[in-house]
Amino acid sequence: MGRNFKIAIVGTTGLVGRTFIKVLEERNFPVSNITFFASKNSAGKEIKFNGQNFIVEELKEETVKNYDFALFSAGGAISKQYAPIFAQKKTIVIDNSSAWRMDENVPLVVPEVNPEDLSWHNNIIANPNCSTIQLIVALKPISDNFGLNKVIVSTYQSISGAGQKGLDKYHKEMLGQDVGDKHKIFSNAFFHPVSAEQQDWTVEEIKMINETRKMLHNPNLPISVTCVRLPFEVGHSETVYIETEKDFQKSDLIEKLNTQENLIIIDDLHKDDYPTPAMTQDKDEVFVGRIRKELSINNAFWMWVVANNIRKGAATNAIQIAEKMIEMNLIN
Amino acid sequence: MGRNFKIAIVGTTGLVGRTFIKVLEERNFPVSNITFFASKNSAGKEIKFNGQNFIVEELKEETVKNYDFALFSAGGAISKQYAPIFAQKKTIVIDNSSAWRMDENVPLVVPEVNPEDLSWHNNIIANPNCSTIQLIVALKPISDNFGLNKVIVSTYQSISGAGQKGLDKYHKEMLGQDVGDKHKIFSNAFFHPVSAEQQDWTVEEIKMINETRKMLHNPNLPISVTCVRLPFEVGHSETVYIETEKDFQKSDLIEKLNTQENLIIIDDLHKDDYPTPAMTQDKDEVFVGRIRKELSINNAFWMWVVANNIRKGAATNAIQIAEKMIEMNLIN
């Protein structure tokens, strides 16, 4: 029998926090001890985990102890402040916020893509942005086997990417209530906030570009994206147009994509078979469809990449990072 | 005072047919006489036009007379059968179906783009596909001024593109009813049916590619698209990535786009100003936002193109074709 691990969850009551709990249970993650942290507002609430009741604790510097892993999803400010405090107590922080992702001393990891980056860290590991995770799972085998000359992505992102607050607004608008935002969520398409770094680009677009480059260890990767938020509850989708160095047949693409762990191809347009966001409910895999060679030039193709943004795009990937570190014997 | 025209509407009771009536009224189209045709099922219904009551007539070969213009939106099969019958009676048919669009004896026209093609025809003129119309209005000034080396489009299309039937299904699903389709419309993303011409591509994608090439008179235009249907009622949007022959500044793009008739730029991400599908309700223009130079290479940029698919994408463009022919003195 392997050993069990001491876990802390930071941001327990949020959408991703609640999914951490669900995914840990589903995967029978080997837990010896678990502590649930949240803000003052949520402290004292009861939480069920593996049939036992727990009380949510307020996150305070003086109550932080040593854990094997702390799974963070409480926003960038909390991560910035508390991740170093947990790290000092020899806890591996796996942080779902964007606070540490581009820090050169912090590895940014998708276990199917760059597990080797788990072998160096200062006790903080960053979980990538949801739309980046699903893209890079599908991109990696293409990059490895055919080389990437150009990657043009448009996203179709669900409102759960804006957390419980986004979902609540969507449901209110569905009932005809005006939530006071400039752009409606329901029956509409809209954009993420503007980036602080790049005039005219959204935060989400810059994240996808920078994080993909960091994980593929290619700072000049020619990738560009437009990110769009849409009125559905769960599941992000992406149209991905790729020009490669080497030529290929469609069967070569499928063969290489099929070598990728946790990637499922659903691709028969004649039978209306393709992945949709609605089918990712409770799914942890990345789904790929609409694989087709470009008609006007060689060495180019499209694919449609779909995943559950709260699971593989957040909670599941974080837990898979912990599992991979255990598997790689990186935990003392 | 100009002269007034004899009009026939074919497919009166459909979503586009009803919008023909609304747009003719709004634009004070100079009508001397108007006849409303529909299928047997809808014949006998009352229709109001400019305050007067009319009875919808059943479309039969023997009742077709001479009109100045017949506006068709009753599906491809009706267009294929009846457009030549109207054309023989010296009526200019403006057909919203895909039946005649790629016929080399039939001009395919967006008045802001290729009005010169209205000067040759055999009494049938095709109205392009909704997603093509809005794209090409924005593409034309870019093509004319900077040259097009590559055009990569992803669409975000509303369910009204599937007509009243599509809207009805969407509304039923919103109320929790299962309409029996393989893929849900509500809270989901899905694709158009497979093309008969190209394995792995949808009809909508092939239409956009072929129709754009025909109207720009460039059969080798390097354009590729993925078309996606989404859960909103009205308004199609498109992310458009373009590589040009000549270099430019963002201000050059805006200057040239501003020369295009019926194109409105809304573009200040810092103020959350950009077009959305929800704002196209009752609008006839094409809206462009998110204009930004690509970061990784020169001579490339993105834009976001939005229009009302039932108006500019169908009814309004057809009526603008008639108006343009009158303006160009092409009607005897």
What's this, in brief?
Helices cover 28% and strands 23% of the residues of chain A. Chain A has 332 residues and is an alpha/beta fold. The longest helix of chain A is centred in the middle third of the chain and has 17 residues, at 130-146.
In CATH, the architecture of the largest domain in chain A is 2-Layer Sandwich
CATH hierarchy, class of the largest domain in chain A = Alpha Beta
Give the total of beta strands of chain A: 14
How much strand of chain A?
15-25%
- Helices of chain A, by number, come to 7
CATH topology tier name of the largest domain in chain A: Dihydrodipicolinate Reductase, domain 2
Rg of chain A (C-alpha, Å): 20 Å
The percentage helix of chain A is 25-40%
Shape of chain A: globular
Q: What's the story with the biggest beta sheet of chain A?
A: 6 strands, parallel
Interface with most residues: A-B, 52 and 51 residues
Secondary-structure-derived class of chain A: alpha/beta
Strand order of the largest sheet of chain A: 5-2-1-6-7-8
Count of distinct structural domains of chain A: 2
SSE series of chain A = EHEEEEEHEEHEHHEEHEEEH
The unreliable regions of chain A are none
Helix and strand arrangement:
Two copies of one chain form a homodimer.
Chain A: E1 5-10, H1 15-26, E2 31-38, E3 46-49, E4 52-55, E5 57-58, E6 69-72, H2 76-88, E7 92-95, E8 124-126, H3 130-146, E9 148-156, H4 163-174, H5 203-215, E10 223-226, E11 236-244, H6 250-258, E12 263-265, E13 286-293, E14 300-307, H7 311-327
Helix pairs in contact in A: 1-7, 3-5, 3-7
